[in-house]
Specification:
This protein is of the alpha/beta class. The protein has three domains: about 5-75 and about 200-295, P-loop containing nucleotide triphosphate hydrolases (Rossmann fold, 3-Layer(aba) Sandwich), CATH 3.40.50.300; about 305-340 and about 480-675, no CATH class; about 355-455, D-Maltodextrin-Binding Protein, domain 2. It has 25 helices and 13 strands. The strands form three sheets. A six-stranded mixed sheet has the order 5-6-7-3-8-9, with helices on both faces. Strands 11-10-12-13 form a four-stranded mixed sheet. Strand 8 (about 210-215) and strand 9 (about 215-220) form a beta hairpin. Helix 12 crosses helix 20 (about 520-550), helix 18 (about 475-505) runs parallel beside helix 21 (about 560-585) and helix 24 (about 630-640) packs antiparallel against helix 25 (about 645-675). The longest helix is centred in the C-terminal third of the chain and has 31 residues, at about 475-505. The radius of gyration is 37 Å and the shape is elongated. Mean pLDDT is about 80; it is low at about 115-125, about 130-140 and about 255-285. Bound molecules: adenosine-5'-triphosphate. Adenosine-5'-triphosphate binds near residues 49 and 50. One of its GO terms (molecular function) is ABC-type transporter activity. It comes from Oncorhynchus tshawytscha (Chinook salmon). This is ABC transporter domain-containing protein. It is a multi-pass membrane protein.
C-alpha cells in the first residue's frame, strides 16, 4: 500500500490478534476506516468490539498484526494517538454524575480545550455541553449523562472519534440527534468516526459498516451494498444472513479456534467468487508494512512526564475532592480522631484500682502507715481489711492485690537498715508483702511501680533513680507508641484512600479517558502523589497541633525533620495504594488487601511493642518493613533530639525513600503492563 493511500485511511488494522490469557478475543482481524467517514462497528455482545477499539486507541497492546491510526501505529513516540488527535467515549453505564462533570473538565484540560484554538462555531454543539455542565446539578438523566460524556470526547476537536455504544439506553429523539451530529462533523472530511452499536438499523446512517463475529470481521462495506449482496431488506437481515453463512462454513472448517470461517483478510463473499466493496481489505498480495521511525529526541519527549498533563490530573482530583466535601472532611478528621482516641485511651495509668491492705501495725507513727500514705491515691484505692477478708475479696476478683505488713514491720525494717547481717525472720518481717492478680499485666505492673514509687518517696529504697538521660520520669506507654502510631495512621490512610479512589476512577472509565487523552502511567502516578501530598499536609498539621499542643507529647527535636518523615511515610502509603489499585480491579478486593496488610505490619513493625521482644526470624522481617526503622527514627528525633547526623535517624529516611521509590516504580510498571 502506498503512503498516499495510507494517508486516506483513518484506521487500518491488519491480521490483528489479541487474547486475554487463554481467551482469544481478536483473531486475524482486518478493518479499514477511510478518512472522513462514519464507520459502524456491529456485532453481538462479547465478539470483541470494545477490545478492538482499545487496541486502536493504544490502551491495549495487540498480540500480533499491525494497526495504523491516522498514519502511525497507536502509542508510537510523538504520535498523538492516544492523545489530542483522538476523542473517546467509553462504554460505561454506571457513570456518576459528578464524575462526568470532572471527566469533561479533565478532558478539556488534558487536551487543551478546543475553544482556545478553534472558533466556537466549528463545534457549537460540543460547546453547548459546557453550558450543560454549568447546570451540573440538573445532570441526572441517563440521556444527559451520555450527552455530556459525548461532549467530553468531542471537546478537543479530535480527528478521530471513537464512540463505544453511545446510543444504548438513549431515547429515539436523542439517538437521532447524536447521529445527526456525527453526520455533520464528518462532512468536513477531516473527522472520522468509529461507532459501535447494538441497534443495527441505526448504523445504516454510517458510510461504512463492519460486521464482527467471534473476533473476526465477517464483512465490511457500505450498508446498502451489504444488504444488496445478501438480498436483505434490512441491515439486520443482512447481518443474520452473514452469520448463518459463517456458521455453515465454520462447521466445515472446525479447525478455527473461535468458529471463525474466513481465511485471514478474506471476505466471506470472496469465497463465493463475488467481491464485496471491501475498501481495500480483500486478501490481495502480501503487503510490506511501512517502517516507522522516530528521532531520539521525540522518543525521550514521549517518555518524559508532561507537567501540563500532571497539572490537569491534579485539577481533576481537586475538583473531585471539592465536589465531595464530606469525604474530604472525613479524610482530615480521621487521623485526628484516631490519634486523640489513642492518646486518651492507651498508655495512661489505670485509675481507681482497689487494693486490699492488711496492716497488722496499729500505731499511727509506724513505717507502714507512713508508707501507705505515699501511695498514689488517684490510682490505688486502699481498703483496710483482715487477712481472711482481703484474700477472700482478692479471690472473688474484688481486689487487684493484697498488701500485707507484719506486726513488727517498723522495728524489723529499722534493723534491716542498721545491721549488716540480719536473720531471715527480720528480712521477712521487715518486708512489704504483695500478692498480685497477674491476669491483667498492665494493672499489675502499674501497682508494682506505684508501691516502688512510694518506697522511693519514703526514702526506704536502696535505689535512687537520677534524672533520666533521655525522656522524662513521667513518660508512659503513650509516649512510646505515639511516633509509630502517627506514621502508621498517615501511611495506612493514604494506602486505603488512594487504593479506593484509584479503583473507583478506573471503574468509572475516568482513568481510561485520561489515558486516551495521552496521559502516561508515570504522569498518573505522579499526579496522585502530588494530590495526596496536599491532603497529607493538612492531616499532618492537624495531627501535630493535637499531639504537641493538646496531648503534650514531648518533642526535643527539629520539627522540620518530624514533618518530613511523616510526609514521606504518607507519600509511601500513597505509592503502596497505587500498587494495590493498579494490580487489583475492584474496590472490595483493594480494601481487603489494604486491611489484610495493616495488622501484621502494625504488630511486626515494633509500633505497639518493642522490636526487641520479637522472635529472631520475625525480627528480620520486621526490619525490612517500611515503618520499623522510620518509627525508631521518629522516636529518636522527638525524644532524644537527634538529627540527620545520627545513623538511626537517616536510616529511617533512607528506608522510607527506598520503599517509596520501589512502590512508585512497581505501580508504573503494573499500570503500563495493564494499559
Ligand atoms: N479485561 C478482560 N479480561 C478478561 N477477559 C476480558 C476482558 N475484557 C473483555 N474480556 C472478554 O473478551 C471478550 C470480548 O469482550 P469485549 O468487551 O471486547 O466485547 P464487546 O463486543 O465489546 O461486547 P459488548 O458489545 O457487550 O460490549 C468477552 O468474552 C469478554 O468477557
Amino acid at each position: 500500500m502506498t503512503e498516499g493511500r495510507m494517508k486516506d485511511l483513518a484506521i487500518r488494522c491488519r491480521e490483528v490478534c489479541r487474547s486475554y490469557g487463554k481467551l482469544k478475543v481478536l483473531s486475524n482481524l482486518n478493518l479499514t476506516v477511510p478518512q472522513g467517514h462514519i464507520y459502524g462497528l456491529l456485532g453481538p455482545s462479547g465478539c470483541g468490539k470494545t477490545t478492538l477499539l482499545k487496541c486502536i486507541l493504544g490502551t491495549l497492546k495487540i498480540s500480533r498484526g499491525h494497526i495504523s491510526v491516522l498514519g502511525k501505529p497507536p502509542a508510537f513516540p510523538g504520535h498523538q494517538v492516544p492523545g489530542r488527535m483522538v476523542g473517546y467515549m467509553p462504554q460505561v453505564h454506571c457513570y456518576q454524575i459528578k464524575c462526568i462533570y470532572i471527566a469533561l473538565l479533565t478532558s478539556a484540560d488534558i487536551s487543551k480545550c478546543c475553544t482556545e484554538t478553534q472558533p466556537e462555531t466549528q463545534n457549537s454543539k460540543q460547546c453547548r455541553c459546557r453550558s450543560t455542565v454549568a447546570r451540573k446539578n440538573s445532570l441526572e438523566s441517563g440521556g444527559q449523562k451520555r450527552r455530556v460524556s459525548l461532549g467530553a470526547a468531542l471537546l478537543q476537536n479530535p480527528q478521530l472519534l471513537i464512540l463505544d455504544e453511545p446510543t444504548v439506553g438513549v431515547d429515539p429523539v436523542l439517538r437521532a440527534k447524536i447521529w445527526q451530529h456525527l453526520v455533520e462533523i464528518v462532512k468536513t472530511g477531516k473527522v472520522s468516526v468509529v461507532i459501535t452499536t447494538h441497534y443495527i438499523e441505526e448504523a445504516r446512517q454510517a458510510n461504512v459498516v463492519g460486521l464482527m463475529r467471534n473476533g473476526r470481521m465477517l464483512a465490511e462495506g457500505e450498508p446498502e451494498t451489504l444488504m444488496k449482496q445478501n438480498s436483505a431488506a434490512t441491515l439486520e437481515k443482512a447481518f443474520l444472513q452473514l452469520c448463518e453463512t459463517s456458521d455453515q462454513v465454520g462447521s466445515k472448517h472446525s479447525t478455527y479456534p473461535q468458529g471463525g470461517v474466513l481465511e485471514s483478510g478474506q471476505s466471506l463473499e470472496s469465497g463465493r467468487g463475488e467481491s464485496l466493496p471491501m475498501l481495500g481489505v480483500g486478501p490481495g498480495p502480501v503487503e510490506e508494512l511501512p517502517k516507522y521511525s522516530a528521532d531520539w529526541k521525540v522518543r525521550v519527549r514521549h517518555v518524559m512526564p508532561k507537567w501540563r498533563n500532571i497539572a490537569a490530573l491534579i485539577i481533576k482530583t481537586t475538583v473531585r475532592m471539592k465536589r465531595m466535601p464530606g469525604s474530604l472532611f472525613f479524610q482530615f478528621l480521621l487521623p485526628v480522631m484516631q490519634i486523640s482516641l489513642m492518646c486518651l485511651c492507651i498508655g495512661g495509668d489505670p485509675k481507681g484500682i482497689q487494693v486490699a491492705v492488711v496492716n497488722n501495725e496499729t500505731s499511727s507513727s509506724s513505717f507502714s502507715q507512713s508508707l501507705l500514705s505515699f501511695l498514689d491515691n488517684s490510682s490505688v484505692q486502699q481498703v483496710n481489711l483482715s487477712h481472711a477478708e482481703a484474700f477472700a475479696g482478692a479471690y472473688n476478683g474484688e481486689y487487684w492485690a493484697v498488701i500485707g505488713f507484719g506486726n513488727n514491720f517498723t522495728s524489723y525494717l529499722t534493723k534491716r537498715m542498721i545491721q549488716r547481717q540480719v536473720s531471715k525472720e527480720v528480712v521477712d518481717g521487715g518486708s512489704v508483702h504483695v500478692w498480685l492478680d497477674l491476669t491483667n499485666r498492665q494493672i499489675a505492673l502499674m501497682l508494682q511501680k506505684k508501691i516502688k514509687d512510694a518506697f522511693e518517696v519514703h526514702q526506704s529504697s536502696l535505689f535512687f533513680f537520677e534524672e533520666p538521660i533521655y525522656g522524662s520520669m513521667n513518660s508512659d506507654f503513650t509516649t512510646f507508641v505515639t511516633p509509630g502510631a502517627v506514621l502508621s495512621i498517615t501511611f495506612y490512610l493514604a494506602v486505603g484512600l488512594t487504593a479506593l479512589s484509584f479503583v473507583i476512577e478506573r471503574k468509572e472509565g475516568l482513568m481510561e479517558r485520561c489515558w486516551v487523552s495521552g496521559v502516561s502511567s508515570m504522569e498518573t502516578v505522579l499526579a496522585y502523589l502530588i494530590s495526596q501530598l496536599i491532603i497529607i499536609s493538612v492531616q499532618i498539621i492537624l495531627l501535630l497541633i493535637l499531639m504537641l499542643l493538646v496531648f503534650k507529647i514531648p518533642n526535643e527535636g527539629n520539627l522540620v525533620l518530624v514533618i518530613a518523615l511523616i510526609v514521606l511515610q504518607g507519600i509511601t502509603g500513597t505509592s503502596f495504594g497505587l500498587v494495590i489499585s493498579s494490580a487489583i480491579d475492584d474496590e472490595q478486593n483493594a480494601t481487603q488487601a489494604a486491611l489484610g496488610i495493616f495488622y501484621p505490619n502494625l504488630i511486626v513493625s515494633g509500633i505497639i511493642w518493642p522490636v526487641e521482644c520479637i522472635p529472631y526470624p520475625l525480627r528480620y522481617i520486621s526490619l525490612a518493613l517500611p515503618q520499623t526503622y522510620a518509627s525508631e527514627a521518629l522516636r529518636c528525633i522527638m525524644y532524644r533530639g537527634w538529627g540527620l547526623s545520627r545513623m538511626i535517624v537517616w536510616r529511617g529516611f533512607v528506608v522510607t525513600l527506598g520503599w517509596n521509590t520501589f512502590f512508585v516504580i512497581l505501580a508504573i510498571v503494573i499500570l503500563k503492563l495493564r494499559m
